[in-house]
Write a sequence for this structure.
């Protein structure tokens, strides 16, 4: 328990300056993020006072893209800590580790939000000094929040020699900071340009065996070209932000935000529609990091609504084929064979009647000893039987067709 009110629940991040915990404020009953600074930082003369002043300045910044600062305190066991807004979302560094690259449109949209937040801080006289993907939190709705303002000021150039933990910071440091000069607003513009470069290329512009080597490469070397699939408009925006000479960069973070937002809008308008309207946010990764693909939303299958209601009064749902399955045609209903059977029975009965009649006539003719008449009658009756059976069969087939 910090300060008698902040109950530590889960460590959610660690960095070169301390650990960030998800905590519950028992006084106000809300979830907060608490950053507990490393004890070694407190040993520097004047660090505690400078940090307290900056925390007060940060708390005065009122912008949706800047994390809110609620409190600052010191605990006899844990040391100095900063209480901030708890942001639901992932750090941009985690997203890049998962997907590799972002599309130019998505990159420019995030850069515009980050630059807006930086401009709000700059207007209050605060320079961030540590802009990097780990300090950019992206909410599930796509909005971005910039965290950890001003904490790097009291560290100074000692960051460049710390082992391992500040490697990420050195990767985004401006040339003037690497040369020992004081960080300015344009230093933040440079760092955000490096973040944009990493989003587009899937890698940082400079790597090295230690933080000092990386920092010196920012001073002396030109970054490798961005991938050829990056639009020229976006390429020019990032290259200007990463200019070695601060005067050649975008003059303000607001100007950077304006051009990035315009580019994002132009790219979104020019992009072909995707199945289901799902926007593309990730691109295939180069340089062996991996490939991230997005799954389009299944396109709904249209169908006519059946007329009528089901028992109970609710509407019958339309019958639609499942995605990925073929509709099997339903064969037409088989017609009943009952009519054909009845027709055949009638024909047999008629034939039997005719045969009986013929036999009776033949017997009568025998009694009269009229052989000629019997022959004539037999022929006539046989023709009658055949004709009657033929007609009955024809009638039966007609009934079966109906």
């Amino acid at each position: 328990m910090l300060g008698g009110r902040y109950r530590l629940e889960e460590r959610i991040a660690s960095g070169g300056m301390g650990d960030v915990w998800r905590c519950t404020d028992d006084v106000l009953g809300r979830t907060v993020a608490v950053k507990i600074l490393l004890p070694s930082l407190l040993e520097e003369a004047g660090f505690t006072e400078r940090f307290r002043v900056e925390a007060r300045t940060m708390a005065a910044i009122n912008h949706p893209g800047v994390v809110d600062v609620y409190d600052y305190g010191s605990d006899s066991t844990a040391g100095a800590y900063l209480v901030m807004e708890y942001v639901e979302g992932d750090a941009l560094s985690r997203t890049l580790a998962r997907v590799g690259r972002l599309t130019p449109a998505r990159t420019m949209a995030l850069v515009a939000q980050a630059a807006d937040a930086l401009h709000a801080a700059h207007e209050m006289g605060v320079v961030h000094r540590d802009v990097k993907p780990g300090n950019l939190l992206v909410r599930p709705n796509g909005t971005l929040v910039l965290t950890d303002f001003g904490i790097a000021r009291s560290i100074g150039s000692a960051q460049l020699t710390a082992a391992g933990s500040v490697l990420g910071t050195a990767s985004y440091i401006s040339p003037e900071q690497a040369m020992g000069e004081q960080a300015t607003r344009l230093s933040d513009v440079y760092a955000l340009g490096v973040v944009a470069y990493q989003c587009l290329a899937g890698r940082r512009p400079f790597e090295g065996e230690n933080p000092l080597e990386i920092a010196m490469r920012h001073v002396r070397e030109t970054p490798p070209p961005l991938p050829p699939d990056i639009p020229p408009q976006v390429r020019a925006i990032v290259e200007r932000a990463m200019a070695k000479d601060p005067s050649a960069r975008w003059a303000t973070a607001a100007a950077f935000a304006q051009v990035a937002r315009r580019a994002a809008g132009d790219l979104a308008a020019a992009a072909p529609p995707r199945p289901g309207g799902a926007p593309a946010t990730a691109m295939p990764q180069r340089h062996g990091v991996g490939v991230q693909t997005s799954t389009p939303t299944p396109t709904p299958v249209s169908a006519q609504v059946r007329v009528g209601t089901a028992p109970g009064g609710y509407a019958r749902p339309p019958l639609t084929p499942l995605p990925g399955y073929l509709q099997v045609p339903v064969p037409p209903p088989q017609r009943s064979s009952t009519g054909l059977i009845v027709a055949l029975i009638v024909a047999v009965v008629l034939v039997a009647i005719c045969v009986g009649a013929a036999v009776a006539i033949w017997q009568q003719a025998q009694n009269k000893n009229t052989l000629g008449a019997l022959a004539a009658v037999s022929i006539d009756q046989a023709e009658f039987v055949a004709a009657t059976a033929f007609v009955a069969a024809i009638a039966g087939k007609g009934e079966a067709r109906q």
In short: Residues 338-401 form one domain. The chain has three domains: 1-86, 88-270, 338-401. DSSP finds twelve helices and ten strands in the chain.
